[in-house]
Request: fold
Amino acid sequence: MKDSVQIKLGLQGFIKYWKDTADQDISGQYMESIAPTILYWENVLAAMDHPLPPAPTQLSEPFWPSSRFSIAAALHEDNVHLFEENITDYAYVGPASSRPAETFRPGAHIRLGHYVLLRPSEDCTDPVWMGRVISEPNLAHVGPHPRSIEIVYYVPVLGPRNKKTLDDRYKEWDTAKSFKWTRLKDYAPARQSLDCVVASWARQKNASDDNVVIPARQIMFAKDNLDRCARGEHMSGGDQFEDGAPPDGL
Reply:
């Protein structure tokens, strides 16, 4: 490619500028909005270091040429750049009522500082777990702690006048108005698989970190993922999520 060195330097400069700007935004909202752009251009940089694959004479799909997809294989080097997790969904055209749910991709959607909802371990009766991410996601499939994040746990708030048990409160997590969660301060952080996360969102600016209300959109998104997971267990090729690892003593 002509002037490829200058092109790479220019892209690296833009990526550094976006990341530096995100580091200065304590709310995390800028990173959440710019992350797909950063990931896209990082993938472009990675692809520029690989020779173009030979183009077959036949199309891999009814309309789109195979080059639209074939570059993905080059980005699986060392199982770190997971291209499929970083691309966005195809644009939807049709009635709003039929719009499919957004695909949840841990590599693109989970960030340090985000809150997450997780699918509980198989022997746990809680409908969902909540935590906050305190490490950068590890996207590697090999090595220490593959495909995981470190989190601190949150539990439903039990007010001084609330006579319900914690189990009762968990059952209301998706229906009770202004349902709040608080950090489990006496419990050690733990590692959980990225594949048991069913929703992720950034903390709002100036929002309390100890009385967290899950946005309604994230509740619906998590419930949809949990439902698809339950259905996928009973069919081949269905959506797959892992169970959360049972935390000791929680």
In short: Residues 52 and 233 are 38 Å apart (CA to CA).
